[in-house]
Amino acid sequence: MPLTPRINIRRVRRIVRVFYELGFGAWIRRLKLHYIVPLHKRWMRFFRRKEEIPCPMETEIGEYMRDLPVHLRLACERLGGTFVKFGQMLSLRGDLVGQSVADELRKLQDRVPSFSVQEAKATIERELGKPIKILFKNFTETPVGSASLAQVHHAVLPNGREVAVKILRPGIENLVRQDIVILQWVARLLEDHLAFTRSYQPRKVIDEFAEWTTRELNLLNEAVNIEHFRKLYEGEEDILIPGVVWEYTSRRVLTTEFSHGIPMDDLAKYREVRSSRKKIAALGVRLVVRQYFEHGFFHGDPHPGNFFVLPNNRVCLHDFGIVGRIDTKTRRELIGCYVDFLEKDAEGAIDHVLHLAKTDAASDIDGFRREVTGILEQWFYAPTAGERLSTAFYKMVISGGAHGIIFPSNIVLLAKAIVTTESMALLLDPAFDIAGELKPYLNRLLTFELKPEKLAKRGRELLLDSANILDDIPDAARTLLKLAEKEEVGVRLETREFLDIKREIDRQSDIRMLTLLFVADLLATAVLLHLEGIERIGGVPIAFLGILFGAALGVMVLMKIKKRAD
């Protein structure tokens, strides 16, 4: 297969050679890439075929999984940069790559040798347009941290303010772009030549990785994320989000306030910062849980190195390159799921989880329910087995892949982040009970979501959406008629098909009528709840009568729908 002009041939050879040397020869031959491997390498490998990792369809899948995880991690380490980041992302997707691969890839360390201070200074001067001596009173030449995409230096501004300066690694943008193009090309090859990979959607996985990494390569995105978090926790004295120094920030340079603290897992130094491990554990969980269930905007990598403990039981967050977002509907499903968890309602929890996932005709819903019920019952009834609440939820999510049920990346990211958060809390306080912390909090949230004002607002939004749909119908009908006049639309209906369509249209009309009746009754009831002086009729609360009336109408329409469906 010819390579597209955009692909860096030299980089492709390097990648293929590394995987070939690590035993992926069978895979490379199946993908028709063996011609890229130097002849002498192929000749040497010919005598060591037994050491190769078998490719599915040549052996059982369970057999190839035995050696693949370690070799895949080694390949990512040798290729560095983009592949380390990609391996770390795959470590979050146990639902796609299998838990053994995810566990092994979690060992990847995003620590690489730092680049020279001369290159760092040159990037800063080019981006900010001034010499280092004018920009900073002091600039520490040894970086305080170095990763595959960037490194951080401590500095002091002319006004004496301490800052952390994050600088992109020179040339990293071009390298990442090249590697992403290659990964996208390989994803197409996988789907074309290895049919079993299609259900794991390699193209979609690479596209998500490309989106995440591209955003990380523009430090202005991280600056915006920081300001978003600062707004969420504005006025809270025990939570610090370092502010952005905007005049010292660009696409390749990010300057923020410098915070003096200790990593959250540095247990020996808690006395130095006069902080209680139990209080920090509770604060850390409260901080993170609010991001999931209230804000819908959460830190994507809440490991201890990104959480600093400050004096007097305060917490500081760092590294906002990866964040997750969930919409209001998803937050409500998560709240419902965790409430059912805590009430030991396995069926309800599974229903909520399935609402978060993507399913199709090939999805094994019943098999998923059976497996997940076993996971939940272990947490419900065998607390001594060591199963945690967060781990149970994570296992639910990652078990979907085996049943053709795929969860969005933000849900998988959130599930993994909750596991990390609970693990961090238990490290600080082994007696920490996350279920006990969550139950009253989620009940308060649920009560808030069911307030008449909130329900009335959602009802108004539903009515507006329905009105917009009705407004669109005439235009859509006119367009359809024009196409029919031009003979651009052909319709052939059998009598039976026509009757089926008619029934479906009638059923949809009844459903809309039910929705409008329910919303109208909901709005009326919400208004009556706020009226004074006519709260009861014959001793019965008027709001209760409204609810009964709405329920009666709903039952009548449901009976009509059922009768028509039969």
Shape: globular
CA distance, first residue to last residue: 55 Å
Low-confidence stretches: 1-5, 56-64, 493-498
Q: Kindly name the structural category.
A: alpha+beta
Query: What is the assembly state of the chains in this entry?
Result: single chain
Report the mean per-residue pLDDT as an integer: 79
Structure summarized in a few sentences:
The protein is an alpha+beta fold.
Q: How is this fold's topology laid out?
A:
Elements: H1 9-21, H2 25-30, H3 39-46, H4 61-64, H5 68-79, H6 82-90, H7 94-97, H8 99-105, H9 117-128, H10 132-135, E1 138-139, E2 145-146, E3 150-156, E4 162-168, H11 172-193, H12 202-216, H13 219-232, E5 239-240, E6 253-257, E7 262-263, H14 277-295, E8 297-299, E9 307-310, E10 314-317, E11 323-325, H15 328-342, H16 346-355, H17 365-381, H18 389-398, H19 409-428, H20 434-449, H21 452-485, H22 495-529, E12 536-537, E13 540-541, H23 542-565
Parallel strand pairs: 5-10
Antiparallel strand pairs: 1-3, 2-3, 3-4, 4-6, 7-9, 8-11, 9-10, 12-13
Helix pairs in contact: 1-5, 5-6, 5-8, 11-12, 14-19, 14-20, 15-16, 15-20, 17-18, 18-19, 21-22, 22-23
Family: Belongs to the protein kinase superfamily. ADCK protein kinase family.
Domain ABC1 atypical kinase-like: 107-350
Keywords: Membrane, Transmembrane, Transmembrane helix
Main attributes of the structure:
alpha+beta; membrane; 566 residues; transmembrane helix; UbiB_kinase; 23 helices; globular; 13 strands; Kinase-like_dom_sf; single chain; disordered N terminus; ABC1_dom; four-stranded mixed β-sheet; five-stranded antiparallel β-sheet
